Amino acid sequence: MTTARPNIIVLHCHDLGRFLGCYGHPTVRTPNLDSFAADGIRLDRAFATAPQCSPSRASLFTGRWPHANGVMGLTHGDFAWDLHPGERHLGGLLREAGYRSVLLGVHHESRARPDTELAARLGFDHVDTSRIMATPVADLACEHLPELAGKQPFYLQVGCFEPHRMGGARDPEGTKGFIGNHVEPDDELGVEIPPYLNDTESARAEIAELQGAVAHMDQAAGRILDQLDRLGIADDTLVLFTTDHGLALPRAKCSLYDPGLEVAMIVRYPARGWLGGRAHAALLSNVDVVPTLLELLGIDPGDELHGRSFLGLLDGGDYRPNEEIFGELTYHDYYDPRRCVRTDRHKLIANFSNAYAYMDPSQSWHRRCTPRVEPMAYHPPVELYDLAADPHELTDLAAEPAHAATVEELLARLHTWMAVTGDPLLDGAVTSPLHRRTRDRLVR
After folding, report:
1. How many CB atoms lie within 10 A of CB 378?
2. Which of 55, 284, 335, 440 could form a disulfide with 66 if both were Cys (CB 3.0 to 4.6 A apart)?
3. Residue 396 CA: distances (Å) to CA of 60, 343, 358
4. Residue 254 region, left (φ>0) first, then alpha (ψ -120 to 50), else beta?
5. Domain Sulfatase N-terminal: where (predicted)?
6. Which residues of the chain have pLDDT under 70?
7. Residue 112: closest CA among 158, 85, 76
């Protein structure tokens, strides 16, 4: 097994969940990532720490929970959440370890800044966020890779926008779809309606758009992977492909149900034997990625990281699986504080507001996809789902006496996690950067 330090590429996209052919979705055409999975290691039960963009990415790149690293909501515009000043990004950690560190495309894990300021804040040698769509980002990555190859080991972080919703001239009135002005819908292999949504004609049209956007992203990812082969560095390069959270559909993105938290996570590193199409079903969180990479490189992670390394799992050696994983939502479009704990068998969700049962990520006045559950219901204090009998989390068991002991046990686990990691929700409501800025203007 190699002891050399590999090049590291983290390739990520928006809003994908596990909507790839290699994760059992036969109507989605993703030949490049399916081939990558067949040549690497596919992690079948990886989850995000949060079901929205910035908090999840902040965990992915710091190894710490959103409520601890400062990013409890979106980082752009007036949302303005940011990493705490002392938070350390993977790009900076690897640069300190001797890596050439470059960020290209989507950056959404800390407060938006000019590229030079962003590089200084996070510790990158170079940042270019001028392009975020998949094809231009792939162009940018393919341009940089020849310069990076063959020198000191490099860390390359590449993010693309698709399959995020994006407005375009072809959108039906009152909707925001997935195709913008540059993607074609794809129903060549049929259309798969997720089981938590109603199967309607309008849903089929929207899912065809989503499938087209995923296929478009897959083509861009394939170009980057092909460039590694052309440069002769694929064997010595660790590539991790992932996404921030689940699909931008009702009861998925912006919810703590599995469709909101599930993420694709595929890893390949031929020189260490991370190949062959292996698949693992251990419960993992994207907060575990930074500890894994640091252990691989022999870098002391210190005492501040919240994730657990799964290096032993990838190496085929000793690994003690997580008994549970956690998830959180605080702010996205609005304040909707929720926390959850998920085991192999159960999901418990604790709700801290009287918001609607789910936050709608359709960004549309007219919803083409609609959930099978009542959309106008409000959060109960606690929800419980039996994932073995009810994998789509449609039947809440929290109020049933037969499940009272399970509810109390999982509430205790959730409370312990919140207390140990310093979750501010235990002390009361959390205010947003916008709240604080507006208050300051009032009291000047």
Report:
1. 10
2. 55
3. 30, 16, 14
4. left
5. 6-299
6. 1-3, 375-376
7. 76
Instruction: Give the integer Cα–Cα distance in Å for 205 and 441.
Output: 46
pLDDT of residue 114: 97
Residue with tokens 């921030």: 244
CA 168 from chain centre, in angstroms, equals 25
List the structure tokens of 27: 């109507």
Every domain range in the chain assigned CATH 3.30.1120.10:
325-443
Cα dihedral 249, 62, 157, 185, rounded to 10, equals 0
| Terminal Cα distance for the chain, rounded | 62
The CATH class for the domain spanning 7-315 reads alpha beta
Q: Residue 302 has what pLDDT?
A: 86
Q: How many residues does the chain have?
A: 444
Is 331 within 8 Å of 73 (Cβ atoms)?
yes
pTM value is 0.97
Interatomic CA distance for residues 96 and 125, integer angstroms: 11
Tell me, what's the pLDDT at 66? 98
- Nearest 5 degrees, angle CA 287-CA 293-CA 294? 100
**Top-level class of domain 325-443:** alpha beta
Q: How far apart are CA 61 and CA 106, in angstroms?
A: 13
In sequence order, the 6+-apart residues with CB closer than 8 A to the CB of 266 are: 22, 33, 36, 37, 40, 41, 42, 43, 240, 241, 242
Give the neighbor-by-neighbor strand order of the sheet with 346-351: 325-331, 335-342, 346-351, 382-386
Residue 104 parent element (H or E): strand 100-105
Q: What is the residue-wise DSSP string for 248-289?
A: SSTTBTBSSSHHHHEE-EEEEBGGGTB-SSEEE---EEGGGH
Rounded Cα distance between 79 and 331, Å, is: 9
Phi, psi of 296 (to 5 degrees): -55, -40
Residue 439 identity: R
Q: Which of 80, 74, 46 lies closest to 58 in space, CA to CA?
A: 74
Q: How far apart are CA 3 and CA 221, in angstroms?
A: 27
* Burial track 394-411 (b if 16+ CB lie within 10 A, e otherwise): eebbbeeeebeebbeebb
Instruction: List b or e across 221-248, with b for residues whose CB sees 16 or more CB atoms inside 10 angstroms.
Output: bbbbbebbeeeebbebbbbbbbbbbbbb
Looking at the chain, the domain(s) classified CATH 3.40.720.10 span 7-315
**19 touches 249 (CB < 8 A):** no
The pLDDT assigned to 257 comes to 98
For residues 156 and 8, what is the distance between their CA atoms, to the nearest angstrom? 6
